[in-house]
Amino acid sequence: MSHDLKNRLKSGGTVAVCNTDFPTPRLVEFVGGLGFDAVFIDCEHASTDFKEVEDLARAARASGMASIVRPWSNEIGLINRYLSCGVDGIQAPHVDTPVELAAIAHGITQWEGDHTKKLFVAMIESKAALVNLPKMLASEAVDVFYIGALDLAQSMGLKGQPEHPKVRQAVEDAIGMIERAGRVAGMNVQGNLHMVEHYRRLGLRWINVHVKTFVAGPARTFLDGVRETRVVERA
Fold first, then answer.
1. pLDDT in tens, the chain (235 residues)
2. What are 105's strand-pairing partners?
3. Whole-model pTM above 0.90?
4. 39-78 burial, b if ≥16 CB within 10 A, otherwise e?
5. Do 35 and 225 touch, CB atoms closer than 8 A?
6. Which helix (H) or strand (E) holds 208?
């Protein structure tokens, strides 16, 4: 599956990725049945352990999706252990310099299996990473350059404000730079589903979304309706 996505990206295609937030194999299979191309497994900000990663990767394969794991650090032994869990790629956090990127890319080549079939997603999520982005774009080892808007906002002194005009401009400039270089830009659109078309026009082709985004909005609408009905009944 990872090889298919590599080819799709090289041919200019777009990939839809889902962060299941509360990952279980059954939820992964359900998401796969909806038509997503890849599932994102977070091991940086979640409690998912190695055994769970194996089960989630297996569920992804069964439902026709690739699986991408984000480790809590870019230590090569850790990354290669995740690859041995059967995931289709690594989303490396906090890649700030060409040297760091090269070290991760080289480490992946040391994995015991066929590393050429694995996806390498490099997260650009600081002011330093943006400064170094033009040089990092020269690396052929990277499949996707992924903008982390939340951490970027914090790096810019705007913690918790990924929608701040300065952050949004920095994000859009980075997407444009990546696209003009002929590379693949990725990002999580968070709750801004209405912005997907806008970002696609800018060149975003690896598009991630939280499953909780699909739950929260309809749930609030439902609850508002229930509460409104109660008020009418009392009247």
1. 777 999 999 999 999 999 999 999 999 999 999 999 999 999 999 999 999 999 999 999 999 999 999 999 999 999 999 999 999 999 999 999 999 999 999 999 999 999 999 999 999 999 999 999 999 999 999 999 999 999 999 999 999 999 999 999 999 999 999 999 999 999 999 989 999 999 999 999 999 999 999 999 999 999 999 987 655 555 5
2. none
3. yes
4. bbbbbeebebeeebbbbbbbbbbebebbbbbbbeebeeeb
5. no
6. strand 204-210
